[in-house]
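Exercise 7. Given the encoded structure of a 294-residue chain, write a plausible sequence.
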């Protein structure tokens, strides 16, 4: 699933090619991607036609595109969603689901296409959601957000007894960090993902956050991480940060720090990768013995 860097790459592409454009037409080619739109495909089309895209924003893994009406198009890429910019008349992609016909201020016409093979992603109209859609107001800010509250994040991690990787994946605590970048940040910090948050010092949590921010910025510079053709930017190009990964997807390969093979275990119905030497499995705290007398 695309994580924060991949979604940010897409957001930047939409900002470049769609902001300031008028939506001349909307064509819903399959109803599933707009399944969360209460007015259905027809209402979706009506709400967007003749509107102007005024910005391209992101909260965690969600995208939203404010309109001059005060509404917004809210989107999530899911497992395989793509936002592609194409000239009118370009051949349709095999899994094209929604097509937006755009008119740029220059008079140039272009299309913004939502392509989704597996159709876990989707689009909807957020009424009055131009500033922040109410549907995603509960999602925490991400580490790249200028208003991210680092002190609150440190406190939230240290008061929880659950595994720190589980906390990193909790979008109510911090958004945008998915399985790939959680594993990479934990490897950089030398922390095992099963270590309870409450057993980390404030300094360790801040260092872990710093590594998460650094690895996502590095991925952003390289266009994100592409393990297959399902994640691409708006021009259809893959990212190449997968070549720089140190833990995720490296099972059996030597750790870049110590040379011990990277291990893979099952975690929350997905895979988790770590170095057994650099990221030692946390010890189970000993329970105090109690004695009773008759």
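Solution.
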């Amino acid at each position: 699933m695309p994580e924060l860097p991949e979604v940010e790459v897409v957001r930047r592409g939409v900002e470049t090619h769609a902001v300031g454009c008028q939506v001349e037409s909307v064509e819903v080619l399959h109803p599933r991607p707009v399944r969360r739109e209460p007015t259905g495909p027809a209402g979706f089309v009506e709400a967007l036609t003749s509107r102007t895209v005024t910005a391209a924003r992101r909260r965690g893994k969600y995208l939203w595109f404010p309109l001059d009406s005060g509404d917004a198009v809210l989107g999530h890429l899911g497992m395989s969603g793509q936002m592609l910019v194409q000239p009118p008349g370009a051949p349709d992609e095999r899994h094209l689901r929604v097509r937006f016909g755009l008119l740029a201020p220059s008079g140039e016409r272009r299309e913004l296409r939502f392509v989704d093979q597996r159709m876990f992603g989707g689009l909807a109209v957020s009424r009055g959601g131009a500033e922040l859609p109410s549907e995603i107001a509960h999602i925490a800010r991400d580490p790249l957000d200028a208003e991210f509250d680092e002190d609150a994040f440190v406190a939230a991690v240290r008061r929880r007894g659950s595994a720190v990787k589980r906390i990193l994946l909790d979008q109510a605590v911090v958004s945008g960090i998915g399985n790939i970048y959680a594993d990479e940040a934990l490897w950089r910090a030398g922390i095992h993902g099963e270590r309870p948050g409450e057993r980390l010092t404030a300094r360790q949590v801040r260092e872990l956050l710093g590594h998460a921010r650094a690895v996502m910025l590095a991925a952003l510079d390289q266009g994100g991480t592409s393990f297959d053709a399902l994640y691409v930017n708006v021009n259809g190009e893959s990212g190449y940060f997968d070549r720089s990964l140190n833990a995720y997807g490296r099972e059996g390969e030597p750790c870049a720090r110590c040379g011990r093979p990277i291990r893979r275990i099952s975690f929350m119905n997905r895979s988790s990768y770590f170095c057994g030497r650099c990221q030692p499995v946390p010890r189970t705290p000993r329970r105090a013995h109690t004695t009773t007398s008759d």
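Remark. The longest strand covers residues 96-103. Students should compare their own answers with the one above.
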